[in-house]
Amino acid sequence: MSKSARAVLAVAIAVAGIAYSSWLLEFVLHTGLDPTNSFLSELDAVGQPYREVFSYADTLTGTLAVLASIVGIVFLPRRPLITTGWIALLIFGASTIADARLPITCIPTPVHPCGGTPSGLFPQLHHIHALTSTIAVFAIFTAMIAFSWAAYRYRAWPVLRVVGLAMLVICAVTTAWMLIADNLPGDYALGVAQRVQVGTMSLWIVTLGIAVWRTPTSARLR
């Protein structure tokens, strides 16, 4: 792959990461949701005023991730961990597109749970959207672990060995925060936890783009 082609690939990955942080627009758009307690899936729920904005951003993220992964698999050096990372990123992209195309159809409240399902810390996840979101999160975690491991194993991508690993740790901590809090009574600002989680995922994707841009295609992976 030429230097210019690698730069285009890096930009595509970085733009995917930036688009995945479209939830930041909730601080300038009147969404009517409280970031402390609401979930990001509620931003593009059916009937929300700015649903199309967040839906298109997720679709862009997913499309770029899928295309970048295919290019990475075909044209960049192949090693088991790196290939695993690209495949995981591809699955993340496809799942994120599905997220955008299959939004939740209602935002539940303790008084009006959707579809009669009991309300709780994760009531809005009683939907097929839960499956696509779970796959997306699992896939991006797999990609983060695989690429970080590859950065150490093959002595490549220095930025992933430092910044990328830090993002992975923060993301893991916030995910644990959400999973543990789901089994405890009370309010644990799960909206904040998810926003930190997704924010670090976005930053990690941008970091991957930087790593691809700064590492020559001809670099030997040991």
UniProtKB/TrEMBL annotation:
InterPro entries: DUF998 (IPR009339). The chain crosses the membrane at residues 7-33, 53-76, 81-98, 128-152, 159-180, 192-213. It comes from the Bacteria. The keyword Membrane applies. It holds the Pfam family DUF998. Keywords: Membrane, Transmembrane, Transmembrane helix. The keyword Kinase does not apply. This is DUF998 domain-containing protein.
